[in-house]
Amino acid sequence: MSIIGLSGYHSDSAVAALVDHRFHVGVEEERFTRIKHWAGFPEHSLRFCYEEACGGSIDALEALAVGHEPKAHYWRKVYVAATHPKIWNLARTRRRHHQKVMKLEDLIAATLGVTVEKLPPFHRVEHHLAHAASAFFCCPWDEAMCITLDGFGDFLSGLRAVGRGNRLEVIDRVFFRIRSASSTPRSPSTSVSRSSGTNTR
Predict the structure, then answer these.
(1) How would you class 42 by CB atoms within 10 Å of its CB: exposed for 0-12, middle for 13-18, buried for 19 or more?
(2) Domain count, the chain
């Protein structure tokens, strides 16, 4: 059985597929569009990986996933937007982006030539958790520390987790924070929140 993961609507959109829990194929959309760092829905990459991993059969597809969860840390996003009027234009742009991600099933179904009802379970994975999972679950170790650093993804700039077997336990998250006018260029613009949550592979 196969699992397909997507990264879309931001720079370097891509698709990858696992077959029998092993990496099988992956490709960035720019390889088809010939536009560097292409952002948008990875239609060609999805179709290519679907054919390579599933032979074009929806019955061979066990699950779909996207490395973005618009609902993650929702109230923190609302609070920051409400208390920082200067980012309202950005907030509106992000909202439109989130709406696209929430409608991915329709685009995926159309690309694969099936109805939405025929799609397997669809999982929206928190951005930094997806980064950590893509590293740990493909590594040769049964236990490892996972650290992600990224400018912005589901309102995080970083995450620390421990991977054991087929699980990731989040230790803490570094939340994105708007830098104040008095901050120096080298001042950190993040805040850390500890977590005891465990996430299953």
Answers:
(1) buried
(2) 1
